[in-house]
Amino acid sequence: MPLLTMLPTRHGGQRQLPGWSMQRFICEQNVAHFERLLDQATDPALRRTLEGLLKSARRDLAMLESALSGAEGSPLEARRRRLGDAQTIRQQFQPEFDASPHPYMLLDPAPGLCIVDINDAYARATLTSRSDVVGRSLFEIFPDNPDDALADGVSNLYASLRTVVKTGQPHAMAVQRYDIRDPQGRFIERHWQPINSPIHDRDGILIYILHHVEDVTADMVSPISAAHDPDHPST
Fold this sequence. Notes:
The chain is of the alpha+beta class. 46% of the residues lie in helices and 17% in strands. Strands 3, 4, 5, 6, 9 and 10 form a 6-stranded antiparallel sheet that branches. It has a two-stranded antiparallel ribbon with strand order 1-2. Strands 7-8 form a two-stranded antiparallel sheet. It starts with 6 loop residues before the first strand and ends in an 8-residue tail after the last helix.
């Protein structure tokens, strides 16, 4: 199924969109295209193929949007956030953040969706380390498993982060399969219960997004599968 790469002009010719706008346009068109095809398909095998293509298209769009605008909905929100007192906010919650036994990650909602910090519990749960992830893009560190055609962790997480920015309220996601990489770079199955929450300064300006997860893999996979996962504690 070919990608749409050009727009028609009034005179029947074609004009090329600027680079980023072109990519966004293609991604949006692909999502809409596969949604229409999926609505019309009745064959189970075809539907499964289309579901994989749709999730891949949504992932591509989420990756592009996160790079272009982060989780921020408008340039006005970005300008307001730059006026916020991020340093004071960090000082207020950092001790509790570090000491918590629950996994937390702090995100900058600006373009790139960079990881500001993780606590030790998050590092243990995701088999990462602070030094390896801080300052890097969220989806660079946590991409979808390329061997799972139906993986939708990236697109669902991004949608939740955008919801937090739009509403200014916490957003609890449904249990999400989101595989992670082990120290050897191999993807291993994980299921999470994520909650994303806004962190505002005293003037109500969004400064960070706090990402909290609980590993619920043991509740979602068979005991036999869990027993063959050396990186996951048995229960």
